[in-house]
Every structure is written in C-alpha cells, then in structure tokens.
Amino acid sequence: MDPNFQTAEALTACLRSGELTSVDLTDAAIARIERDDKAINAICVPDFDRARAAARDADEARARGEDRPLLGIPVTVKESYDVAGLPTTWGVPEHRDYVPAEDALQVSRLRDAGAVILGKTNVPVGLQDIQSRNDIYGTTNNPWDHSRTPGGSSGGSSAALAAGFGALSIGSDIGGSLRTPAHFCGIYAHKPTLGLLPSRGMVAPPAPALPVDLDLAVVGPMARSARDLMLLFDVMAGPDPLTHGMAHTLALPPARRERLGDFRVLILDDHPYIPTGAAVRAGVNRVADALAGSGARVERHSSLLPDLTEAAILYAQLWFSGVTGRFPAERYEQLVQHVAGLSEDDQSLDAVRMRGGAFSHRDWVQANDRREAHRHGWRQFFAEFDVVVCPITPTPAFPHELNPSLGERLIDIDGVSHPFIDQFVWAGLATMPGLPATAVPAGRSAEGLPVGVQLVGPMFEDRTPLRLAELLEREIGGFQAPE
C-alpha cells in the first residue's frame, strides 16, 4: 500500500491499528516530495525537520492513549497562512524575508488536531491569479500535465494533493481559489459560508494578524475525498475566540438529505456572460445523470433563481472595490481618471469591474443593499431546492499563461477566445452572496484532464453540499491519481 495516496481517514485507521506510525507516513511523504516535486514545484517552503519531530511527538501521544482528529496525519498549508518560523510572502518579492512569530489561527487548529505540517504550498503574486507563479518560488505545474496550471491561488495545495504530498491542505477563496484548483487537479475543496471559518493570520505581509470580518474572502479545506473534506472542515470550523467566540458556539444544521435520491437539485450549465466548454458541460451532465438515475428531483430551470447577470455585475463591483481599497493613492487616482473616460455605452464586465474599483463608500453601500436582496432571493430559492450544480470555470486546466495582466489575457473555450477574467462569473455565483460551495471531481476531458463541478448550498448549511459530495463520490467515483 502506498500511503501517499490514501485518505486521511484510511491513514488514521492504520495508525490506530499500529499498522503504520506517523513517522512512517511522514518519511514516505517527504521521500515522495523529494523525488517528484522538482517537476511539480508545489511545496515552496518545506519544513521537514519540524515535521519529523512532530511525527515522533504524535506517535508518542498515541502510545499514551491520545486520539485526536488528525493525530499523526501529514498535511500542507497554503503559503499565505502564517506559520511561525517560516516566511509568509504571498509571492511578493519585497516580503521574501518576512517571517511571522506566531501561527495563523487555522494552523494552530491543525496542530491542536495533531496534524504534521510538511511545509507551505505555492501561490501567485498577491494571490491574484488562477495560476500559481511568482518570482520567489517559480511556477507550479499541474501533476496531470506539466505544461498546464494547477490553478490558483491555492494551486500549490491542489498540486500537492494530486501528487500525493500529504493527505490534506488548507487554502483560501475569493475568486474560486479553492474551487478552481480542485477542478483543475481532480480533488475536493470547500468554500464555506462567508464568515464561518475564521481567517486570522491569513493576511498579506507585513500586516498584523488581527481578527477581521472579510468581505467575499474565505478560508477552507482541500482533500482527496469528500469524507476527508468534512473531517478537515470540522477541524477548521468555529468562531475566532478573540471575537465571535466570546459569545457564540458553533451549531451548524445537519445535512438536509441523507440519500442521493432525496435531493432537490437545479442544474446550471449556461451563463449569460460566458459559454461553457464541452468538457465541463459533460461533467455537469454526468452529475445530473447520476442524480436523476438515483431518483433525485433534477431541474434545469427555475423562476426562483436570482438573476445571473445582475449577480455577476454585483460580484465584479464588490470584488474590485475591495481590491482597490488598498491601492496606493496615485494608482487609485489613475483608476478614477480611467473610469471617468469610459463610455456610458460600455457595459462590459471589464468596465463594470473598473467602475467598481472606483466606488465611493455610498456606491458600495448601495451595491451591498442589492446583494442583500440577492441573499433573500437565494433563501426563497433554497426553500424549493437543496443544491445548485454548476461549473467552476468553463474549461479544464489551461496551458501556463505568461501574460501577467489578467485583463489582457484570453481564454480558449472550444476554439473561440473570450476575455480571461470573465470566467470568474461562475466563482462569483456563490462568492457574491456568501453561499457555501463544494468542488467535486466529475470525470475527465477527452485529453484526460480532470473536470470538476461545484455544489452550491444554502448559507450556513455547509453540511448539505458536503454530504452530497460524499454521496456522489460513491456513485460516480472521486479522486484518481495522475497517470
């Protein structure tokens, strides 16, 4: 048995039975990384000495009778999380020497659960791409095809999982940064309900690791199985003890359904702003067929669905308003002047994003009011449905894109070029209103590349899409190691 591709659940069973030790698992993971990561470049900051020490401590703890959720399980952490004693750069060269003194809250929760941290995984500059490349650590390649990206910004984590470098990882998401890498690498990831998982210590350097309520952005788990995803979600969940944890405890509703055939599902594979490629459409249909074949209620249209065009516009406005809020004054003024010169007839998503970037606070409040109307629309929708099944991006993993400007890039969808950044509308479907979304494998393209879909659920009912992910894994299969 190669432990490097086993689930955390299976490895825990081996640890409990004494078949393997944490030292065995950690040494095997390190050996695989040292053998294979030269070609993939997923682990940008290894921490092998401390990992081996943590593995020895885990074995000693188990010998004393301890049994924590991740005791002795090798994991990785996205580079953007603070890990005491390791650099946190967010891929920005001027921060290459920044080393935090304390762990991020989620890293502390991994350690408290007994996990063995192998190291940190690669990211794009400032986490602002769906590739994973920067001038400090270089480019991360997709384990399925080294000429293609594993996604971003949690692409190092997805590549690590697909390559067998640890059983679990943690990432973050504002523009699909958990879901897109999962889709591109054939693994699982969960974008939680906005605000559900605390993000303290997942902050761009050199900002202090303070508790904040982020808009749109979340942290979340990544895994090679749906049950492992739920396991790691439970480790990460719960309010920050410095803020909401002073007054609140976690009490999430159970999954709405326990049987595949009991789910009520809306299938979406068309968006008004961008077409869906044949490979991704086939993945969506594969999930739809599995649901219908199990007796689930499967529909492709609903008058209750909030307007996708307005949703995409709101997402673009809110997202770029947050991005430009930290621009230097000179750069922001340049943007304002650029927006002033836009034609009123230009209603492209690019123009929408630019105008959002120049929002006043009054503009933002008005957009936020419209978002609240969408959230209420989703509440009404989820009174009749349990989950939406839809694409994550329009295509499988694309070849490495060298142009650093997202606005100048194009994405090829079945032989036709489209604005690269417009594909983010599918990520925004869940991100704008703050809904939970679980990325699951849904087959492979004709070229043999992984294809995933997202299962979007009701706010704070994260266990519903997570449960559906588990049931679909049983029905259509899940992660497969790259060939």
Automatic annotation (TrEMBL):
<keyword id="KW-0378">Hydrolase</keyword>
<feature type="domain" description="Amidase">
    <location>
        <begin position="24"/>
        <end position="464"/>
    </location>
</feature>
<dbReference type="InterPro" id="IPR020556">
    <property type="entry name" value="Amidase_CS"/>
</dbReference>
<dbReference type="InterPro" id="IPR052739">
    <property type="entry name" value="FAAH2"/>
</dbReference>
<dbReference type="GO" id="GO:0004040">
    <property type="term" value="F:amidase activity"/>
</dbReference>
<dbReference type="Pfam" id="PF01425">
    <property type="entry name" value="Amidase"/>
</dbReference>
<protein>
    <submittedName>
        <fullName>Amidase</fullName>
        <ecNumber>3.5.1.4</ecNumber>
    </submittedName>
</protein>
<dbReference type="GO" id="GO:0012505">
    <property type="term" value="C:endomembrane system"/>
</dbReference>
<dbReference type="InterPro" id="IPR036928">
    <property type="entry name" value="AS_sf"/>
</dbReference>
<dbReference type="InterPro" id="IPR023631">
    <property type="entry name" value="Amidase_dom"/>
</dbReference>
